[in-house]
Design goal:
Thiol Ester Dehydrase, Chain A, alpha+beta
């Protein structure tokens, strides 16, 4: 689907921008409908309301959406403690699925840094329903990478290979 069609198609998955949203939105988060609510001091809270586009065959949330939500929460938590002029990338992500989620469920993901060093961060995360039921837990190891200013993203990724 072209970017123009995605931007005008009423079936698109992302919600409209909110005036109180962070300025550094990620297109992938928009695509899934993830909304950061708090990001600071080694913690992050992200919300997502399950829609039909998030389901696997059947009526439950696809595990990849759980994984993406946990990765985002833990990554944003680690990013809040990143050294100056550093980006980060997930090196390891582990998760445990506990209960399913269904269409209409409001999910709240919490990411929290357990250790932040000069080159890596170790985090833990969980996803709960809006009534507090634990749905999934996870851990991650993230690598801090120096930013290469003045280089386009595609070129930077090619250099990392």
């Amino acid at each position: 689907m072209s970017e123009e069609l995605l931007a005008t198609d009423p079936r698109r998955w992302a919600k409209p921008a909110h005036p109180d949203e962070p300025q550094n939105r990620m297109p992938f988060h928009d695509l899934l409908g993830m909304w950061p609510r708090e990001v600071a001091g080694g913690k992050a809270v992200i919300e997502l309301t399950v829609g039909p586009q998030h389901l696997r065959a059947g009526t439950i949330l696809h595990g990849g959406v759980f994984a993406a939500l946990l990765d985002a929460a833990q990554g944003m938590a680690a990013a809040s403690l990143a050294p100056p002029d550093h980006d980060l990338v997930t090196a390891q992500l582990g998760l445990n699925f506990i209960r399913p989620a269904r269409v209409g469920d409001a999910l709240i993901a919490l990411g929290e840094v357990q250790h932040a060093g000069r080159k890596t961060a170790v985090t833990r995360g969980e996803i709960r329903s809006s009534n507090g039921t634990l749905l999934a837990t996870g851990t991650a190891t993230l690598l801090y990478l120096p930013m290469d200013t003045g280089v386009e993203n595609g070129e930077k990724l090619r250099r990392m290979d």
